[in-house]
Amino acid sequence: MTAFATMLAFLPLAVALYAYAGYPLVLWILGRVARSPLRGDANFSPTVSIVLPAYNEEHQIAAAIDAALAQTYPRELIQILIMSDASTDGTDRIVEGYEARGVELLRMPERSGKTKMENLAGPRLRGEIIVNTDASIRLHPAAVRELVSQMADAAIGVASGRDLSISAAGVGVNATEKGYVNYEMWVRSLETTTGGIVGASGSCYAIRSHLHRMPVRSDLSRDFSAALTARLHGLRAVSVESALCFVPRTESLTREYRRKVRTIARGMKTLYHNRRLLNPGIYGAFAVKLASHKICRWLVPISAIPSLLAMVFLAPSHRWAQVVLGVVALVALLAATGALWPSGRRMPRILSLAAFTTAANIAVVNAFWKVLIGHEDRIWEPTRRTVSAR
User: Fold this and answer.
1) Cα angle at 215 between 212 and 110, to 5 degrees?
2) CB 3.0 to 4.6 Å from 230: which of 157, 197, 242, 260, for a disulfide?
3) What is the DSSP string of 188-255?
4) Residue 154 to residues 72, 147, 235, 293, Cα–Cα distance (Å)
5) What is the pLDDT of residues 240-264, one digit of tens each?
6) What is the pTM of this model?
């Protein structure tokens, strides 16, 4: 019994070491042996539809449209379509003000949710390549050109941008989030050099129109589905380092937690819906990547529950278990302090690390529970981010 409890106690550590260190190391080694470099063609110029969903975004929709209009890609080849999810503020009026510049508005008569809106918008899209982004994201002027240039390779079905986490008002409320985003982009770059990524960035990604037009269930994640759909059709999804998109960090840890729960729950449902891709006998390295990048990361906090119970069982007779439980209690205290930290004030790094890591792991457990009980989350609720003028 003691041996089994000890194994359970160390299970999250073993899974975390593989998911966050071992897996990237394997990718790095494989990339040195069999590298698959990207070969973009700047002269490749298909028609492009930039699609931007919005719900009550009157405070930032204009800046998002301006960023789309500022793209260096030939303007005559771009369609800009704003999808309003029955907005009740001034969003639609602002979008209509850009009509003379070719910006189009598609308004839903009632709340439909992001994925359903994207399904319904299919007939309105004229581009050969669809670029999906968000109202709170600011695209670098060359972002669309960089994404589209990679689509010159007929083997690539999805090209994902590189997220840059920025502080909205110059205040490092949660600097740990920036570190995690940089780490995630690094892993995606390693996956790209070894064949392709397993999930596109929801901030900005390009996809071939015939793949985008395939309907996605309204409770699933379209950006995650994009890479999976591409692989099911024999195409690659890649991360493009030079396609920059600036992603403001949320100033509220509570809002960020809720966003993570929604995103992870949808991701779990999406993976289960496409579970056949986990068969290495058919999908080879992609199946291993998918399990390593997604399932192993989710298993870390989920396996932590039996691990804590095992350490409670071992604590009376094992000093190391007592020490670990003490460290867990300290981290929980720091995380609680971080969660209560005043919004807009710089959070000390140690609080940021404890709060962000704890919230991210609890969000996985919460999302897993929602999936287990069949919780429905079909109506999209965008994460409110404050975007600085810069």
Assistant:
1) 105
2) 157
3) HHHHHHTT--SS--SSEEEEEHHHHTS---TTS-HHHHHHHHHHHTT-EEEEEEEEEEEEEPPS-HHH
4) 23, 14, 8, 26
5) 999 999 998 776 778 888 889 999 9
6) 0.90
